[in-house]
Amino acid sequence: MKFIVSHSPHIQKKETIQKIMWSVSFSLIPAGIAGILFFGYHALLIIFLGTFTAVFTEAFIQILTRQKITIKDGSAFLTGLLLAYNLPPSVPFWIPIVGSFFSIALGKQIFGGLGQNIVNPALLGRVFLLASWPKYMTTFVKPNFNLFNFFKFDAITAPTPLSLLKEAKPIGVTYLDLFLGNRGGCIGEVCIIALLLGALYLLIKKYIYLYIPLTYIGTVGIFTYIFGPSGFFKGDWLFHILSGGLILGAFFMATDYVTSPLTTKGQIIFGIGCGIITSVIRLWGGYPEGVSYAILIMNLSTPLIDRYTKSKIFGK
Amino acid sequence: MNITNFISIFISAVFVNNVILSRFLGLCPFIAISKETKPAIAMSFAVSFVIFMSSVISWCIYRFLLIPFNLIYLRTITFILVIAAFVQLVEMIIRKFFPVLYRFFGIYLPLITTNCAVLGVSLLNTDMFFNNGKALTGSFYYSIFQSLCVGLGYTIAMILMSAIRERLELCNIPKPFKNFPIAFVIASIMSMSFLGFNGFKF
Amino acid sequence: MKNKFKEFLKGLIKENPTFVLMLGLCPTLAISTTIKNGLGMGVATTFVLIGSNAMINLIRKIVPDKIRIPCFIVVIASFVTIVELIMKAYVPILDRALGIYIPLIVVNCIVLARAEAFASKETFLNSILDGLGMGCGFTLALLLISTIRETLGMGTFFDYKIKGFEPIFLLSLPSGALLIIGLLLGFFNFLKEKKG
Q: Which domain holds residue C99?
């Protein structure tokens, strides 16, 4: 047996950025299909508008500033896709457009483009939308799984399990529902099994490593177990892991190469930090969900973590 | 006086109403000195120290001097004078007795006199923990705790910012946005992320 | 006469305290949520600037060089206290909206910077004109930022509701203020580059 211990950036293989970006987008397809099946054509429209605007904005800014157009590398597409996955299926059509524009223009291009951004652009876009139009961003619809009702979009509002928990109302969703995605939520976050399928693909391909997702999800589990609503060590940790955007965030957004630490040690700190902030916001914060804020705050701390976990130059 | 109040003061002062990112106090040095980590840390320690000491002093003056003699309208003048005198004194003491420390953060001390954060916290303490010229119960403890938390919030924002800006040195930022504009955009992103702590209830 | 006019005019654009000198940003960002607040803050600061510039110009020869800064601060603080008391008496709503940012005019760097750099060296009339110009420049910058923030962030203009527009609420939050000033500074840099 031969082990190769290495950490990102994994350039030693013949993988280009382009290939990685498109593979990540590819691995997100099952979750997208699940979202469309649950929420109807409106979800597909949002995904299309989000990705299209992201790619268009990238090209537009690059033409305007006379740079090489790099939309083929798939990173803008991925940003738009992730942003759309993080939107409730009932948002008006202009929300993904404005959000994608904000993500690309102020999350990425203002810092100089690919590889230079300090936070995950898709999450920045989502947080911007959530702060600007909370009305749309916190209204969720009931999933309606039926292969034949693709064109039927009935907007029966249904709060997410996490917001029901926050308001101390009965949740009425089984673990199986959570696992399969039969619950209110954002387009891409609901179907856990589809997300895990995609994550497995990325893990086998060695595009992502388990350090961040495992520490992140583990911390949330332990934290919510300890600080249960009815006393210490009585929390419903499985519910917290399966609900909200935790799986989507932990596998697909917290692992972003550019905005997560370089060393293994740094990645573990990053994951634990994300987990603590997510749980704190979920348990005591004003918002029902804290994944995007947690990842953003840890993105901002990444340069600091890197600074103190970097291996020292020998002899210095 | 109970523990919940202290926790909400902590969350409010460090994250939700962070001095720099939400109240915009002490913004100028935040933008100007956050280009490198070392001076940024030195500056934030100096500021935290001065905030703490001056809020202790100004609380005492407000409680035992201004209120009994009915001189509340002199609050602004008194506070700024006390802070200026105190900073001057600290600078002299440090220069004389701790030359190493002086080299570390002494040069930032004169700047701190006109740092809005210092006067701002003293004013906030008197606004929040006095009611109609009477100190609330535990007002003194709340005041010093709040000043400590504000200092912590200042330090956190400053250190994060300086580490990010050190990384930006390697980035290919569009020319008009180099330096100050991008620093404001980053501060905005930080402020946006700290929104997650809004509405905190313990 | 033309010279005098120049002293006034330079504060508006060429040496605009907010966008060019980057002084006194704290109140600019904190209270620019509505145009009314911005205007109130601008007028209050202008008053303090004119008053302190004039006063410091008059006493500049009596004050020993070594303790000039504390003296300047006392003069400024006195004018700020006057403003504070006037506002409390006549515009209590505005006073409450601006909160601690009124007493904080004392540490607004513009005021001390103009006292130190201009009023303690120039003639009386020039000092007053400089104070007026800088104050107007500051007010102008405040109006620009608060107009953007109120119309886009709250969907109102001087409290009149704009119809058919869903306001970008973020812009009336603190992070919106930081974002706008960052973008505006970048935009002005861009213009300068293009010109020069």
A: 2-146
